[in-house]
Specification:
The chain has 603 residues and is of the alpha+beta class. It has three domains: 319 residues, Electron Transport, Fmn-binding Protein, Chain A (Pnp Oxidase, Chain A); 102 residues, Translation factors (Elongation Factor Tu (Ef-tu), domain 3, Beta Barrel), CATH 2.40.30; 137 residues, Rossmann fold. The chain has twelve helices and 29 strands. Strands 9, 10, 11, 12, 13, 14, 15 and 16 form an eight-stranded antiparallel sheet that branches. Helix 1 packs across helix 7. It is globular. The chain starts with 7 loop residues before the first helix and ends in a 5-residue tail after the last strand. GO terms for molecular function: oxidoreductase activity. InterPro entries: Cbr1-like_FAD-bd_dom, FAD-bd_FR_type, FNR_nucleotide-bd, OxRdtase_FAD/NAD-bd, Riboflavin_synthase-like_b-brl, Split_barrel_FMN-bd. This is Flavohemoprotein.
Length: 603
Protein backbone atom coordinates (compact mmCIF):
# COMPACT_ATOMS: atom_id res chain seq x y z
CA UNK A 1 0.00 0.00 0.00
CA UNK A 2 1.26 3.49 -0.79
CA UNK A 3 -0.17 6.98 -1.06
CA UNK A 4 -1.17 8.29 -4.51
CA UNK A 5 0.50 11.55 -3.45
CA UNK A 6 3.98 10.11 -4.06
CA UNK A 7 5.79 9.50 -7.34
CA UNK A 8 8.05 6.45 -7.95
CA UNK A 9 11.22 8.25 -6.87
CA UNK A 10 9.74 9.21 -3.51
CA UNK A 11 8.36 5.71 -2.97
CA UNK A 12 11.78 4.22 -3.74
CA UNK A 13 13.57 6.39 -1.17
CA UNK A 14 10.85 5.82 1.43
CA UNK A 15 11.31 2.08 0.99
CA UNK A 16 15.09 2.30 1.37
CA UNK A 17 14.71 4.47 4.48
CA UNK A 18 11.93 2.34 5.97
CA UNK A 19 9.52 5.26 6.29
CA UNK A 20 6.64 4.03 4.12
CA UNK A 21 4.22 3.82 7.05
CA UNK A 22 5.07 7.26 8.38
CA UNK A 23 4.89 8.72 4.87
CA UNK A 24 1.40 7.32 4.29
CA UNK A 25 0.24 8.81 7.59
CA UNK A 26 1.78 12.22 6.93
CA UNK A 27 0.55 12.32 3.33
CA UNK A 28 -2.64 13.76 4.83
CA UNK A 29 -0.86 17.14 4.89
CA UNK A 30 -0.25 17.07 1.12
CA UNK A 31 -2.87 19.09 -0.69
CA UNK A 32 -3.59 20.67 -4.05
CA UNK A 33 -4.73 23.81 -2.25
CA UNK A 34 -3.30 26.28 0.23
CA UNK A 35 -4.72 26.80 3.72
CA UNK A 36 -7.58 29.33 3.87
CA UNK A 37 -6.31 32.70 2.61
CA UNK A 38 -6.71 34.50 5.98
CA UNK A 39 -4.53 31.87 7.65
CA UNK A 40 -1.88 31.64 4.92
CA UNK A 41 -1.69 35.41 4.52
CA UNK A 42 -0.78 35.67 8.19
CA UNK A 43 2.31 33.60 7.46
CA UNK A 44 3.14 35.52 4.28
CA UNK A 45 2.75 38.89 5.99
CA UNK A 46 5.57 38.02 8.39
CA UNK A 47 8.09 37.29 5.61
CA UNK A 48 10.79 39.48 4.09
CA UNK A 49 12.14 36.83 1.73
CA UNK A 50 10.54 34.02 -0.31
CA UNK A 51 12.64 31.28 -1.96
CA UNK A 52 12.02 30.00 -5.50
CA UNK A 53 13.45 27.05 -7.42
CA UNK A 54 13.54 27.44 -11.20
CA UNK A 55 15.45 25.92 -14.13
CA UNK A 56 17.40 27.39 -17.02
CA UNK A 57 15.66 27.18 -20.41
CA UNK A 58 16.72 23.94 -22.13
CA UNK A 59 15.09 21.73 -24.79
CA UNK A 60 15.78 18.68 -22.60
CA UNK A 61 14.31 19.21 -19.09
CA UNK A 62 16.67 16.56 -17.71
CA UNK A 63 19.61 18.77 -18.67
CA UNK A 64 18.19 22.03 -17.33
CA UNK A 65 20.22 23.54 -14.48
CA UNK A 66 18.35 24.06 -11.20
CA UNK A 67 18.80 27.34 -9.32
CA UNK A 68 17.40 28.53 -5.98
CA UNK A 69 16.76 32.28 -5.74
CA UNK A 70 15.52 34.66 -3.03
CA UNK A 71 12.86 37.31 -3.57
CA UNK A 72 13.13 40.12 -1.02
CA UNK A 73 10.31 42.45 -0.03
CA UNK A 74 8.02 43.56 2.77
CA UNK A 75 5.40 41.14 4.04
CA UNK A 76 2.07 41.24 2.24
CA UNK A 77 3.48 43.57 -0.43
CA UNK A 78 5.91 40.80 -1.39
CA UNK A 79 3.52 37.84 -1.31
CA UNK A 80 -0.18 37.28 -0.75
CA UNK A 81 -2.65 34.47 -1.32
CA UNK A 82 -5.44 35.53 -3.66
CA UNK A 83 -7.23 32.20 -3.23
CA UNK A 84 -6.43 28.69 -2.10
CA UNK A 85 -4.87 28.01 -5.51
CA UNK A 86 -3.06 31.27 -6.28
CA UNK A 87 -0.17 33.22 -4.72
CA UNK A 88 0.77 36.71 -5.95
CA UNK A 89 4.46 37.63 -5.74
CA UNK A 90 5.55 41.22 -6.25
CA UNK A 91 9.27 41.76 -5.62
CA UNK A 92 10.20 45.47 -5.76
CA UNK A 93 12.88 44.79 -8.36
CA UNK A 94 14.48 41.87 -10.16
CA UNK A 95 17.88 42.90 -11.58
CA UNK A 96 19.02 41.92 -15.06
CA UNK A 97 21.88 40.07 -13.37
CA UNK A 98 19.53 37.82 -11.40
CA UNK A 99 19.51 34.23 -12.64
CA UNK A 100 15.80 34.10 -11.89
CA UNK A 101 15.10 36.74 -14.53
CA UNK A 102 17.22 34.78 -17.02
CA UNK A 103 15.32 31.57 -16.23
CA UNK A 104 11.89 33.14 -16.61
CA UNK A 105 12.33 35.57 -19.50
CA UNK A 106 11.95 33.25 -22.54
CA UNK A 107 8.70 31.72 -21.30
CA UNK A 108 7.21 34.98 -20.05
CA UNK A 109 7.96 36.78 -23.29
CA UNK A 110 5.88 34.11 -25.03
CA UNK A 111 3.14 34.38 -22.36
CA UNK A 112 3.64 30.82 -21.14
CA UNK A 113 4.18 29.54 -17.61
CA UNK A 114 7.11 27.67 -16.07
CA UNK A 115 7.41 25.16 -13.21
CA UNK A 116 8.41 26.62 -9.84
CA UNK A 117 9.07 25.46 -6.31
CA UNK A 118 8.26 27.93 -3.54
CA UNK A 119 9.53 27.86 0.04
CA UNK A 120 8.03 30.12 2.69
CA UNK A 121 10.13 29.87 5.84
CA UNK A 122 9.52 31.87 9.01
CA UNK A 123 12.88 31.83 10.75
CA UNK A 124 11.70 33.53 13.92
CA UNK A 125 8.69 31.26 14.52
CA UNK A 126 10.32 28.13 13.02
CA UNK A 127 7.59 27.50 10.45
CA UNK A 128 8.05 26.18 6.94
CA UNK A 129 5.58 25.85 4.07
CA UNK A 130 6.30 24.49 0.60
CA UNK A 131 4.34 24.98 -2.60
CA UNK A 132 4.96 23.55 -6.05
CA UNK A 133 3.19 24.72 -9.18
CA UNK A 134 3.40 26.88 -12.27
CA UNK A 135 4.68 30.45 -12.38
CA UNK A 136 3.34 33.03 -14.81
CA UNK A 137 3.56 36.76 -15.35
CA UNK A 138 0.59 38.39 -13.63
CA UNK A 139 -1.85 40.61 -15.46
CA UNK A 140 -0.77 43.27 -12.97
CA UNK A 141 2.58 43.48 -14.78
CA UNK A 142 0.93 44.59 -18.03
CA UNK A 143 3.29 42.33 -19.94
CA UNK A 144 6.36 44.09 -18.51
CA UNK A 145 9.25 41.76 -17.72
CA UNK A 146 12.22 43.22 -19.49
CA UNK A 147 12.58 46.50 -17.61
CA UNK A 148 14.44 45.60 -14.43
CA UNK A 149 13.86 49.06 -12.96
CA UNK A 150 10.13 48.45 -12.66
CA UNK A 151 8.34 46.15 -10.19
CA UNK A 152 6.98 42.94 -11.63
CA UNK A 153 4.10 40.80 -10.50
CA UNK A 154 4.13 37.02 -10.65
CA UNK A 155 1.42 34.43 -10.09
CA UNK A 156 2.07 30.99 -8.60
CA UNK A 157 -0.67 28.55 -9.63
CA UNK A 158 -0.61 25.93 -6.88
CA UNK A 159 -0.41 22.23 -7.72
CA UNK A 160 0.87 20.89 -4.39
CA UNK A 161 1.07 22.60 -0.99
CA UNK A 162 2.04 21.37 2.45
CA UNK A 163 3.52 22.41 5.81
CA UNK A 164 6.93 20.94 6.47
CA UNK A 165 9.16 19.77 9.31
CA UNK A 166 10.69 22.79 11.14
CA UNK A 167 13.24 20.80 13.14
CA UNK A 168 16.53 22.21 11.89
CA UNK A 169 15.59 25.87 11.49
CA UNK A 170 17.87 28.28 13.35
CA UNK A 171 15.81 31.06 14.90
CA UNK A 172 16.59 34.45 13.42
CA UNK A 173 14.89 37.83 13.56
CA UNK A 174 15.14 40.70 11.11
CA UNK A 175 17.44 43.41 12.45
CA UNK A 176 15.12 46.35 13.25
CA UNK A 177 17.77 48.77 11.98
CA UNK A 178 17.35 47.33 8.46
CA UNK A 179 13.62 46.58 8.45
CA UNK A 180 12.60 49.87 6.83
CA UNK A 181 15.38 49.98 4.25
CA UNK A 182 14.64 49.20 0.59
CA UNK A 183 14.67 45.38 0.32
CA UNK A 184 17.54 45.32 -2.19
CA UNK A 185 20.30 47.64 -3.44
CA UNK A 186 19.63 49.44 -6.74
CA UNK A 187 22.22 47.31 -8.56
CA UNK A 188 23.61 43.85 -7.87
CA UNK A 189 26.58 42.24 -9.61
CA UNK A 190 27.53 38.56 -9.72
CA UNK A 191 30.63 36.58 -10.64
CA UNK A 192 30.18 33.33 -12.55
CA UNK A 193 32.50 30.37 -12.10
CA UNK A 194 32.71 26.60 -12.42
CA UNK A 195 34.78 26.07 -9.27
CA UNK A 196 34.49 27.07 -5.64
CA UNK A 197 36.75 29.89 -4.50
CA UNK A 198 38.38 30.04 -1.04
CA UNK A 199 35.69 32.51 0.05
CA UNK A 200 33.00 30.11 -1.19
CA UNK A 201 34.56 27.29 0.82
CA UNK A 202 34.63 29.44 3.95
CA UNK A 203 30.98 30.39 3.48
CA UNK A 204 29.95 26.75 2.99
CA UNK A 205 31.91 25.46 5.98
CA UNK A 206 30.57 28.24 8.22
CA UNK A 207 26.91 28.08 7.30
CA UNK A 208 24.10 26.70 9.45
CA UNK A 209 21.44 27.03 6.72
CA UNK A 210 21.18 26.21 3.03
CA UNK A 211 18.38 26.23 0.49
CA UNK A 212 18.06 23.25 -1.82
CA UNK A 213 16.19 22.86 -5.11
CA UNK A 214 15.39 19.72 -7.11
CA UNK A 215 13.47 18.98 -10.31
CA UNK A 216 11.41 16.05 -11.49
CA UNK A 217 10.26 16.93 -15.02
CA UNK A 218 7.10 14.85 -14.63
CA UNK A 219 5.97 16.46 -11.35
CA UNK A 220 7.75 19.81 -11.16
CA UNK A 221 10.23 21.70 -9.03
CA UNK A 222 10.76 21.71 -5.29
CA UNK A 223 12.35 24.29 -2.97
CA UNK A 224 13.59 23.04 0.38
CA UNK A 225 15.75 23.91 3.37
CA UNK A 226 18.52 22.15 5.27
CA UNK A 227 19.97 23.22 8.59
CA UNK A 228 22.54 22.13 11.14
CA UNK A 229 25.30 23.44 13.32
CA UNK A 230 28.10 25.37 11.58
CA UNK A 231 30.33 22.80 9.93
CA UNK A 232 27.52 20.45 8.90
CA UNK A 233 28.34 21.19 5.23
CA UNK A 234 31.70 19.67 4.22
CA UNK A 235 33.82 20.63 1.21
CA UNK A 236 35.74 17.77 -0.42
CA UNK A 237 37.19 19.79 -3.30
CA UNK A 238 36.54 22.89 -5.36
CA UNK A 239 33.77 21.00 -7.14
CA UNK A 240 32.37 18.61 -4.52
CA UNK A 241 30.48 19.20 -1.26
CA UNK A 242 28.36 16.99 0.97
CA UNK A 243 26.22 17.23 4.07
CA UNK A 244 24.51 14.75 6.41
CA UNK A 245 20.80 14.10 6.19
CA UNK A 246 19.28 13.96 9.66
CA UNK A 247 16.02 12.39 10.70
CA UNK A 248 13.02 14.24 9.25
CA UNK A 249 9.42 13.45 8.41
CA UNK A 250 10.27 10.61 6.01
CA UNK A 251 8.41 11.94 2.96
CA UNK A 252 11.58 12.53 0.90
CA UNK A 253 10.22 14.85 -1.80
CA UNK A 254 13.67 16.26 -2.56
CA UNK A 255 15.47 12.92 -2.47
CA UNK A 256 12.67 11.34 -4.48
CA UNK A 257 13.17 13.94 -7.20
CA UNK A 258 16.89 13.10 -7.28
CA UNK A 259 15.99 9.48 -8.05
CA UNK A 260 14.32 10.74 -11.22
CA UNK A 261 16.71 13.58 -12.10
CA UNK A 262 20.07 14.38 -10.49
CA UNK A 263 19.99 18.09 -11.35
CA UNK A 264 19.88 20.26 -8.21
CA UNK A 265 20.69 23.69 -6.84
CA UNK A 266 22.12 24.96 -3.54
CA UNK A 267 21.98 28.56 -2.29
CA UNK A 268 23.45 30.19 0.81
CA UNK A 269 22.60 33.64 2.17
CA UNK A 270 24.95 35.27 4.65
CA UNK A 271 22.38 36.64 7.09
CA UNK A 272 24.90 39.08 8.59
CA UNK A 273 26.32 40.60 5.39
CA UNK A 274 23.63 39.98 2.76
CA UNK A 275 26.01 38.18 0.38
CA UNK A 276 24.65 35.31 -1.73
CA UNK A 277 26.25 32.13 -3.07
CA UNK A 278 24.34 30.09 -5.67
CA UNK A 279 25.45 26.68 -6.90
CA UNK A 280 23.95 24.50 -9.60
CA UNK A 281 25.00 20.95 -10.34
CA UNK A 282 24.03 17.35 -9.71
CA UNK A 283 23.28 15.57 -6.46
CA UNK A 284 22.94 12.00 -5.24
CA UNK A 285 21.94 10.28 -2.02
CA UNK A 286 24.68 8.11 -0.49
CA UNK A 287 23.39 5.42 1.84
CA UNK A 288 26.76 4.21 3.14
CA UNK A 289 27.59 7.00 5.57
CA UNK A 290 30.63 5.06 6.82
CA UNK A 291 32.38 6.01 3.58
CA UNK A 292 32.44 9.61 4.83
CA UNK A 293 34.95 10.24 7.63
CA UNK A 294 34.06 12.04 10.86
CA UNK A 295 30.36 12.15 10.07
CA UNK A 296 28.09 12.62 13.09
CA UNK A 297 26.20 9.61 14.45
CA UNK A 298 22.84 11.27 13.86
CA UNK A 299 23.41 11.28 10.08
CA UNK A 300 21.14 8.73 8.43
CA UNK A 301 22.50 9.20 4.92
CA UNK A 302 24.64 11.65 2.96
CA UNK A 303 23.75 14.11 0.22
CA UNK A 304 26.65 14.49 -2.21
CA UNK A 305 26.61 17.54 -4.49
CA UNK A 306 28.79 18.06 -7.57
CA UNK A 307 29.29 21.72 -8.44
CA UNK A 308 28.90 22.60 -12.14
CA UNK A 309 28.08 26.30 -11.97
CA UNK A 310 28.79 28.99 -9.35
CA UNK A 311 27.29 32.45 -8.96
CA UNK A 312 28.61 34.62 -6.12
CA UNK A 313 27.44 38.14 -5.43
CA UNK A 314 30.08 40.87 -5.47
CA UNK A 315 28.23 42.65 -2.69
CA UNK A 316 25.02 42.36 -0.67
CA UNK A 317 21.93 41.25 -2.57
CA UNK A 318 19.66 42.66 0.14
CA UNK A 319 19.74 45.54 2.60
CA UNK A 320 18.13 43.30 5.21
CA UNK A 321 20.19 41.71 7.98
CA UNK A 322 19.13 39.05 10.45
CA UNK A 323 20.17 38.45 14.05
CA UNK A 324 20.68 34.88 15.27
CA UNK A 325 18.48 34.12 18.29
CA UNK A 326 19.31 30.47 18.83
CA UNK A 327 20.34 27.31 17.04
CA UNK A 328 17.77 24.55 16.73
CA UNK A 329 17.88 22.18 19.71
CA UNK A 330 17.61 19.33 17.20
CA UNK A 331 20.96 20.09 15.57
CA UNK A 332 23.28 17.12 16.13
CA UNK A 333 26.77 17.91 17.37
CA UNK A 334 29.18 18.27 14.46
CA UNK A 335 32.26 19.00 16.55
CA UNK A 336 32.16 18.85 20.36
CA UNK A 337 34.49 21.88 20.43
CA UNK A 338 32.12 24.15 18.52
CA UNK A 339 30.24 26.91 20.32
CA UNK A 340 26.99 26.38 18.44
CA UNK A 341 25.09 24.82 21.31
CA UNK A 342 21.92 26.20 22.88
CA UNK A 343 23.02 27.41 26.33
CA UNK A 344 21.85 25.10 29.10
CA UNK A 345 20.98 22.33 26.65
CA UNK A 346 21.57 19.46 26.20
CA UNK A 347 20.83 18.57 29.82
CA UNK A 348 20.82 15.08 31.37
CA UNK A 349 17.47 13.95 32.81
CA UNK A 350 16.42 10.82 34.68
CA UNK A 351 13.11 8.94 34.51
CA UNK A 352 11.63 8.93 38.04
CA UNK A 353 7.94 8.06 37.64
CA UNK A 354 5.61 6.25 35.22
CA UNK A 355 1.82 6.68 35.43
CA UNK A 356 -0.71 4.73 33.39
CA UNK A 357 -3.40 7.12 32.15
CA UNK A 358 -5.33 4.80 29.82
CA UNK A 359 -4.71 1.51 28.06
CA UNK A 360 -2.59 3.27 25.42
CA UNK A 361 -1.33 6.39 27.23
CA UNK A 362 1.35 6.62 29.91
CA UNK A 363 2.89 9.66 31.57
CA UNK A 364 6.66 9.71 32.10
CA UNK A 365 8.21 12.09 34.64
CA UNK A 366 11.85 13.10 34.20
CA UNK A 367 14.02 14.77 36.85
CA UNK A 368 16.50 17.47 35.81
CA UNK A 369 19.57 18.56 37.82
CA UNK A 370 18.31 22.16 38.05
CA UNK A 371 15.25 24.30 37.44
CA UNK A 372 14.12 24.49 33.81
CA UNK A 373 11.91 27.31 32.61
CA UNK A 374 8.93 26.35 30.46
CA UNK A 375 5.36 27.46 29.81
CA UNK A 376 2.19 25.33 29.79
CA UNK A 377 1.56 24.07 26.25
CA UNK A 378 5.20 24.00 25.12
CA UNK A 379 7.03 20.89 23.92
CA UNK A 380 10.33 19.25 24.80
CA UNK A 381 12.84 17.36 22.67
CA UNK A 382 14.70 14.36 24.05
CA UNK A 383 17.60 12.26 22.79
CA UNK A 384 17.85 8.61 23.82
CA UNK A 385 21.35 7.25 23.32
CA UNK A 386 21.15 3.84 24.98
CA UNK A 387 18.04 1.75 24.49
CA UNK A 388 18.21 -1.97 25.30
CA UNK A 389 16.51 -4.15 22.66
CA UNK A 390 16.89 -1.44 19.99
CA UNK A 391 19.19 -1.90 17.00
CA UNK A 392 22.29 0.26 17.60
CA UNK A 393 22.17 1.47 14.00
CA UNK A 394 18.94 3.31 14.90
CA UNK A 395 20.56 5.23 17.76
CA UNK A 396 20.51 7.93 18.93
CA UNK A 397 16.74 8.39 18.83
CA UNK A 398 15.43 11.97 19.00
CA UNK A 399 11.76 12.58 19.75
CA UNK A 400 9.52 15.52 20.58
CA UNK A 401 6.50 15.48 22.88
CA UNK A 402 4.31 18.18 24.37
CA UNK A 403 4.84 18.70 28.08
CA UNK A 404 1.62 17.71 29.84
CA UNK A 405 2.31 19.50 33.12
CA UNK A 406 2.74 23.09 34.26
CA UNK A 407 5.80 24.28 36.16
CA UNK A 408 5.29 24.50 39.93
CA UNK A 409 6.85 27.95 40.28
CA UNK A 410 7.75 31.05 38.30
CA UNK A 411 11.37 29.83 38.30
CA UNK A 412 10.33 26.72 36.43
CA UNK A 413 10.54 23.16 37.68
CA UNK A 414 13.02 20.34 38.16
CA UNK A 415 10.61 17.78 36.73
CA UNK A 416 9.12 17.42 33.27
CA UNK A 417 6.21 15.21 32.31
CA UNK A 418 5.35 13.87 28.87
CA UNK A 419 2.26 11.80 28.14
CA UNK A 420 2.90 9.33 25.33
CA UNK A 421 0.34 7.34 23.37
CA UNK A 422 1.54 3.93 22.26
CA UNK A 423 1.48 3.87 18.50
CA UNK A 424 1.41 0.68 16.45
CA UNK A 425 4.81 0.38 14.80
CA UNK A 426 6.13 3.41 16.67
CA UNK A 427 9.72 2.73 17.75
CA UNK A 428 9.98 5.06 20.74
CA UNK A 429 6.40 5.06 21.98
CA UNK A 430 6.35 1.25 22.01
CA UNK A 431 9.74 1.06 23.71
CA UNK A 432 8.72 3.50 26.45
CA UNK A 433 5.48 1.65 27.14
CA UNK A 434 7.04 -1.81 27.40
CA UNK A 435 10.70 -1.36 28.37
CA UNK A 436 11.24 1.98 30.14
CA UNK A 437 12.51 1.56 33.72
CA UNK A 438 12.92 4.07 36.52
CA UNK A 439 16.44 5.45 36.51
CA UNK A 440 16.67 5.49 32.71
CA UNK A 441 18.80 8.36 31.38
CA UNK A 442 18.05 10.69 28.49
CA UNK A 443 19.22 14.07 27.21
CA UNK A 444 16.89 17.05 27.13
CA UNK A 445 17.79 18.93 23.93
CA UNK A 446 15.51 21.89 24.37
CA UNK A 447 12.06 23.32 25.04
CA UNK A 448 10.10 25.39 22.56
CA UNK A 449 6.61 26.05 21.26
CA UNK A 450 4.12 28.84 20.71
CA UNK A 451 0.93 27.05 21.80
CA UNK A 452 0.70 28.74 25.18
CA UNK A 453 -1.47 31.56 26.52
CA UNK A 454 1.19 32.46 29.10
CA UNK A 455 3.76 34.26 26.97
CA UNK A 456 4.20 38.01 26.82
CA UNK A 457 0.54 38.62 26.07
CA UNK A 458 -2.12 39.06 28.73
CA UNK A 459 -4.08 35.87 29.37
CA UNK A 460 -7.29 35.99 27.31
CA UNK A 461 -10.49 36.21 29.33
CA UNK A 462 -12.24 33.52 27.26
CA UNK A 463 -10.53 30.36 26.02
CA UNK A 464 -11.64 27.40 23.94
CA UNK A 465 -9.38 24.35 24.24
CA UNK A 466 -10.05 21.85 21.42
CA UNK A 467 -8.23 18.53 21.18
CA UNK A 468 -8.39 15.16 19.54
CA UNK A 469 -6.70 12.02 20.92
CA UNK A 470 -3.30 12.59 22.48
CA UNK A 471 -3.53 16.20 21.28
CA UNK A 472 -5.10 16.83 24.67
CA UNK A 473 -1.64 17.10 26.29
CA UNK A 474 -0.92 20.82 25.63
CA UNK A 475 -4.46 21.76 26.60
CA UNK A 476 -4.14 19.73 29.79
CA UNK A 477 -0.97 21.65 30.60
CA UNK A 478 -2.74 24.96 29.85
CA UNK A 479 -5.63 24.00 32.14
CA UNK A 480 -3.18 23.10 34.90
CA UNK A 481 -1.33 26.35 34.33
CA UNK A 482 -4.53 28.38 34.64
CA UNK A 483 -5.32 26.62 37.92
CA UNK A 484 -1.85 27.23 39.31
CA UNK A 485 -1.93 30.93 38.48
CA UNK A 486 -5.42 31.39 39.94
CA UNK A 487 -4.11 30.07 43.31
CA UNK A 488 -7.50 28.66 44.21
CA UNK A 489 -9.52 31.76 43.32
CA UNK A 490 -12.11 31.01 40.66
CA UNK A 491 -12.82 34.72 40.20
CA UNK A 492 -9.41 35.24 38.57
CA UNK A 493 -9.76 32.32 36.17
CA UNK A 494 -10.68 32.89 32.53
CA UNK A 495 -13.89 31.47 31.12
CA UNK A 496 -12.76 28.15 29.61
CA UNK A 497 -14.55 25.67 27.36
CA UNK A 498 -12.79 22.33 26.89
CA UNK A 499 -13.88 20.18 23.93
CA UNK A 500 -12.17 16.85 23.47
CA UNK A 501 -12.82 14.19 20.84
CA UNK A 502 -11.92 10.58 21.54
CA UNK A 503 -12.82 7.31 19.90
CA UNK A 504 -13.93 5.64 23.15
CA UNK A 505 -15.02 7.17 26.45
CA UNK A 506 -12.65 4.95 28.43
CA UNK A 507 -9.76 6.17 26.28
CA UNK A 508 -9.91 9.80 27.44
CA UNK A 509 -6.57 10.71 29.07
CA UNK A 510 -6.68 12.65 32.37
CA UNK A 511 -10.44 12.12 32.58
CA UNK A 512 -10.71 12.11 36.38
CA UNK A 513 -8.60 15.25 36.71
CA UNK A 514 -10.55 17.03 34.00
CA UNK A 515 -13.83 16.25 35.75
CA UNK A 516 -12.41 17.35 39.11
CA UNK A 517 -11.11 20.64 37.73
CA UNK A 518 -14.40 21.38 35.98
CA UNK A 519 -16.31 20.70 39.20
CA UNK A 520 -14.04 22.92 41.29
CA UNK A 521 -14.20 25.82 38.83
CA UNK A 522 -17.78 26.85 39.69
CA UNK A 523 -18.71 26.68 36.03
CA UNK A 524 -15.71 28.76 34.92
CA UNK A 525 -14.54 25.62 33.09
CA UNK A 526 -17.09 23.69 31.02
CA UNK A 527 -16.20 20.27 29.71
CA UNK A 528 -17.50 18.50 26.58
CA UNK A 529 -16.47 15.01 25.49
CA UNK A 530 -17.40 13.95 21.95
CA UNK A 531 -17.03 10.22 21.37
CA UNK A 532 -16.74 9.10 17.75
CA UNK A 533 -16.63 5.32 18.19
CA UNK A 534 -19.57 4.70 20.50
CA UNK A 535 -23.30 5.33 20.19
CA UNK A 536 -25.38 7.25 22.70
CA UNK A 537 -26.64 3.97 24.12
CA UNK A 538 -23.08 2.85 24.83
CA UNK A 539 -22.12 6.01 26.69
CA UNK A 540 -22.80 6.89 30.35
CA UNK A 541 -26.25 8.40 30.76
CA UNK A 542 -24.96 11.18 33.00
CA UNK A 543 -21.49 12.35 34.00
CA UNK A 544 -20.96 14.91 36.74
CA UNK A 545 -19.27 18.11 35.54
CA UNK A 546 -19.20 17.15 31.85
CA UNK A 547 -21.41 16.75 28.81
CA UNK A 548 -20.77 13.49 26.95
CA UNK A 549 -22.23 12.96 23.47
CA UNK A 550 -21.70 10.60 20.57
CA UNK A 551 -20.17 12.31 17.55
CA UNK A 552 -17.31 14.51 16.40
CA UNK A 553 -16.28 18.11 16.93
CA UNK A 554 -17.63 20.07 14.00
CA UNK A 555 -19.89 22.93 13.02
CA UNK A 556 -22.99 21.66 14.84
CA UNK A 557 -21.19 20.87 18.09
CA UNK A 558 -19.37 24.20 18.13
CA UNK A 559 -22.55 26.19 17.46
CA UNK A 560 -24.46 24.26 20.11
CA UNK A 561 -21.91 24.23 22.93
CA UNK A 562 -19.96 27.45 22.23
CA UNK A 563 -22.48 30.10 21.15
CA UNK A 564 -19.96 32.89 21.84
CA UNK A 565 -17.29 31.20 19.70
CA UNK A 566 -16.04 34.33 17.81
CA UNK A 567 -15.12 36.00 21.10
CA UNK A 568 -12.78 33.20 22.22
CA UNK A 569 -9.11 32.47 21.71
CA UNK A 570 -8.84 28.89 20.47
CA UNK A 571 -6.03 26.44 21.24
CA UNK A 572 -6.24 23.50 18.86
CA UNK A 573 -4.20 20.29 18.85
CA UNK A 574 -4.71 16.80 17.45
CA UNK A 575 -4.11 14.72 14.33
CA UNK A 576 -3.21 16.68 11.21
CA UNK A 577 -6.48 16.10 9.37
CA UNK A 578 -8.47 16.91 12.51
CA UNK A 579 -6.74 20.28 12.89
CA UNK A 580 -6.90 21.27 9.23
CA UNK A 581 -10.64 20.55 9.08
CA UNK A 582 -11.37 22.46 12.28
CA UNK A 583 -9.30 25.49 11.24
CA UNK A 584 -11.59 25.93 8.24
CA UNK A 585 -14.73 25.42 10.36
CA UNK A 586 -13.55 27.92 12.98
CA UNK A 587 -12.86 30.55 10.32
CA UNK A 588 -16.26 29.95 8.74
CA UNK A 589 -17.88 30.44 12.17
CA UNK A 590 -16.27 33.82 12.62
CA UNK A 591 -13.12 33.15 14.63
CA UNK A 592 -10.29 35.50 13.69
CA UNK A 593 -7.19 33.76 12.26
CA UNK A 594 -5.14 35.55 14.92
CA UNK A 595 -7.22 33.82 17.61
CA UNK A 596 -6.54 30.26 16.39
CA UNK A 597 -3.38 28.87 17.97
CA UNK A 598 -2.01 25.47 16.95
CA UNK A 599 1.15 23.45 17.33
CA UNK A 600 2.29 20.72 15.00
CA UNK A 601 5.61 18.99 14.49
CA UNK A 602 5.31 16.48 11.67
CA UNK A 603 8.53 14.62 12.33
Amino acid sequence: MHSPHFHPGELHVQKLAGTQGVAIELSAVLSSTLPPAPVFNQLLAAQNVIWLSTTTPHPDPMQASVWVSPLFGRGSTLASAASNRLIHLQPPNLPDTDVLRHNLAPSFQSASSVPVGVLVIDLEARRRYRTNGMLSLSNRSNGNFTASSKPISLDVHVEEAFPNCPKYIQRRVLDPATAQLPPAPPSIQFESDTRLSPSDVHMLESTDTLFFGTHNPSTGLDANHRGGRPGFVRVLSDSQIYWPDYRGNGLFQSFGNLQQNSRAGVTLLDFETGHLLQLSGTASVQWDKKAYPNIERAAERILSFKVLHVRRSKGPVTNYRWQLLEYSPYNPVVDPNTSSGTGEFPMPVTLVKITKETRDVKTFRFLAPKYISFLPGQYATFEFDELPRVDHSLLPVVRTWTLSEAANSTKGDVTLEISVKRKSGGLMSTWLHFHAKLGMKASLLGIDGEMTPFGNKKLASKLLLISGGIGITPNMAILRGVGARAKGSTSTQPDIVVMHQERYYDGIPFKKELLRRAGASRKRTRLYFLISGETTCELPEEVDNATVVSGRIGTCALQKFVPDLPSRTVYLCGPIGFMEKLKIILLDLGVSPACIVTEEFNF
